[in-house]
Amino acid sequence: MAEHAGRPRRKGAKPLGAQAKYAEPAASGAGDSRQGNSDVAATAPVETAVCPKCQGVLEAGATFCGHCGASLATGRKRTYKPGDRVRKSMQRNRESKIKGGRNVLLILGMLHFLVAAGIYVYLSVYADELSVAGETGLAAQGLMKLVVFYYGGLGVVFSGLYLWARSSPLPALVCGLVVYLTFMVVAIVINPASLLSPIAWIIRLGIVGAFTGGIKSALEMRRIERGLSPYASGARSHAVRRKRKVEAA
Known about the structure:
By secondary structure, this protein is an all-alpha fold. 71% of the residues lie in helices and 0% in strands. It has helices at residues 2-5, 16-43, 84-125, 127-132, 135-165, 169-190, 198-225, 234-248.
């Protein structure tokens, strides 16, 4: 105090005691405001998250409901890897080809049933006229009955293969291709003139193409299910399986 007593006081300056006097209410006022804010924060209602499915109260930062198990990560954007879109497109293409081969089995079964039913109706309507025609009519009637059984049997076979292809497409499509090729050879032997029909060849090649495309896609799907590359050869696939068995052992 003695050191500061000799110095001249600046104009408008307040003595130290006055500064302290005026500072104390300010400090007390600040403390009151902080206390008031804490009281408001304590009395303010706390918002709680609620499950949109069961309306149960959720914990902070939860991604699943602890009451019903519902997932809460609905707003997250899914991240795709660079090859995901291409792989999904190829997967849809394979499934489409398998479905096409399966539908060919269904169509062939229905067509053979329709042919057998048409011949049977013809025999029922013109049975008397064929019997009056003598031995020729009886021979034609017997031949038509054989044709009815032939086409009806093929209809049963193709329909059964279609049902089998819904669970096991690869063996069903292979059997369907073999049966169709056999049927095509028999039809050509019975009617050699069908070799000269371009429309018949377009239909035959389309059916064979649908079968081969479905078989190829089914093979790729089987390799994928076994954890192999869909385009790996048989020897390479066997080597990969053998390597995995050795590593597992």
